[in-house]
Amino acid sequence: MATIAPNQITQRPRRDDDGGSEGIDIDFPAIWNLLRRNVHLIGGVVAIALLIGVVIVMRAERLYRATATVQIEEQSAKVLNSEDGRQASGSQEAERFLQTQLSLLNSRAMAQLVVKKLNLASRIPPGPDGRILSPQEREEAAIAKLQSSMSLTLPRDSRVAQITITDRDPRFVADAANAYAEEFIQYNLGRRFGETSYARTFLENELGKAKKRLEASEVAVVDYARRTRLIDATGGKGTEDGVRMLTSSNLMDINSALGRAKVERIEAERRWRQAQATPALNMPEVMTNPAVQQLVEKRALSTADYSRDREKFREDYPGMRDRATELTALNNEVQKIAQTIRGGLRNNYEIAVNQERALASQLESLKTRTVEEQNKSIGYNILRREVDTNRLMYDGLLQRFKEVSAAAGVTANNISIVDRAEVPNRPFTPRTTMTLLSSLASGFALALVLVGVRSRLDDIIRSPEDVASALDLPVLATIPSHPSRLSMTEVIEGSSLSEAFWSLRLAVERTSSGGVPRSLLFTSSRSSEGKSTCAYAVALNFARSGRRVLFIDADLRRPTLHRAIGLPNDKGLASVLAGETTLNDAIRYSVADRLDVLTGGQPTRNPAELLAQPVLASIIAAAEQSYDLVVIDSAPVLLLADAIALASAAGATVFVVEANGARAREARAAVQRLDENGARLCGAVLTKYDRELMQYRY
Description:
The protein is of the alpha/beta class. The protein is built from 22 helices and twelve strands. The chain has helices at residues 28-37, 39-59, 91-105, 108-118, 135-149, 170-228, 246-276, 284-287, 290-310, 318-407, 432-457, 464-471, 488-493, 495-509, 531-544, 561-565, 573-577, 583-586, 607-611, 615-626, 642-649, 664-676; strands at residues 64-72, 150-153, 160-167, 415-419, 475-480, 519-524, 549-553, 588-592, 595-598, 629-633, 652-658, 681-689. It has an eight-stranded mixed beta sheet with strand order 5-12-11-6-10-7-9-8, sandwiched between helices. Helix 4 (108-118) crosses helix 5 (135-149) and helix 9 (290-310) runs antiparallel to helix 10 (318-407). The longest helix has 90 residues, at 318-407.
């Protein structure tokens, strides 16, 4: 197969080292063209989907929805202590508690309470057979219907539950949602009141038992004390060390008194020993005695007066004798008081000794009695501890019973209504706008899917890119579509198509480095793809550029060129191949400036045999010697052998493809057949292309 010319470059996506595409190139014009080609399919599918949406809206049942929200706080009732009922628990316990509350809300018992409150059983119609339902059957039907219309929602990490009711009656949905919330609160209060009643009954029974045990233990203590002649010195109140008996108490008191007596005796003995070893007037007790201090002061004054008068008078002077007598009396008085104080210290010592001896003797007597009492008090202490335990239990139960009795009438609840349900003013479903928009979007999406599937299954060639990818041939030119009423000459000469045919001539001229081939064959996969028009336009344009051109109509089965340009067809290529005339006689000279034409001639029954003769190659060779370019219009490739014979004799072959008409599978088969039989393909031409896609763009 001929390679693509150097000046015709096919753009392909660049790839990196790992073979992945560097970027995605979206061909929006191709997408728009695909949608435009399937606009009727898209419109039909969207219209059907919209019609279905309208039918759904018209036939759908109008349902209303109302929602009431309740807050559920975690709370646990306690019986045997007075702590607050609210407890902080772990996340798992809290989640389990909330799920339990939701299960209670969704239970049949709750639905039954709502049915009775709203008297929903009376709204149940008779059975399908007209049979009157019994009250129990109506109630069961009402419960089932209510449960089917009710839904619960508890958002994550929230304690606010939503109770939603859906039904055809707007007032009913609001009443039912509010009734659910109210009955749930009453149900919860009833359960709490039942728990409180049970607690009171339980505490009352336990309190009676505790009272009997306390009375029996107190009687046992008194009987034991009477039998053992034990006397409680604490008066039944006890101490931190327990119960203390009378003998033990006396022993402890005597022991304490004996300790104090020993201290007093030691102090008295110290003072007495000190008094014995010290002169009487030097004892601290004498020196600190007020009477002694007065006498000593008075004696000092008398001594001073006596000494002063002695300087004036003799000792036998009467006044001096009186003062001497007074001094002697004062000294005697001081000595007498000092001796009296010393005697008092001795008496105190002897008293302390005697008191210590008496207490020690009494202590020894109490020790024996205390040992006997301790043996007896063991049983007493056991009974006494039992009394204290029973009293403590009795007091605790009594306090808890008072608290429960006081809280019995309190209606505190862990369930509260946050938002009450209101009567909806419009139905929840059908949502006309949303349904129609959804139908429209669904129809458009389905249409896109169908367009995609159709584009995948449809192998019709529509664009130059399709030609390049399907046939692996360079696209020489793209010829726009034109009205079918125009003649070949009008098509070629038309201002909108002349530049396209002129570009085809330039592309043919650049197909090889050696210039234009001497002979050029135009063929296609099937008929009516525009190959004759393209061939004649190329021949005409080359002739106008100064070359001598021969156009050969080699479609011996359906020759059309002579009619298009108004030439007779009594003789032509068929006549030359059959030997009926010579080539020079069959050529129509000067059809246009420097353009000669060899028509097909009269149709024959077996064109393939004529074209398969060796004379065909000699005719083309002779024409190449006489003309600068020989342009040959051939029959289609598929199902015919005409084009195969012509392509093997021609210098180059141009394959013509009709846009939106030729199938890639057929065109590929035709190109492969030409290639297998030695055809030298130089490119392809896309004809009848949509004029709108030919607009200049980047």
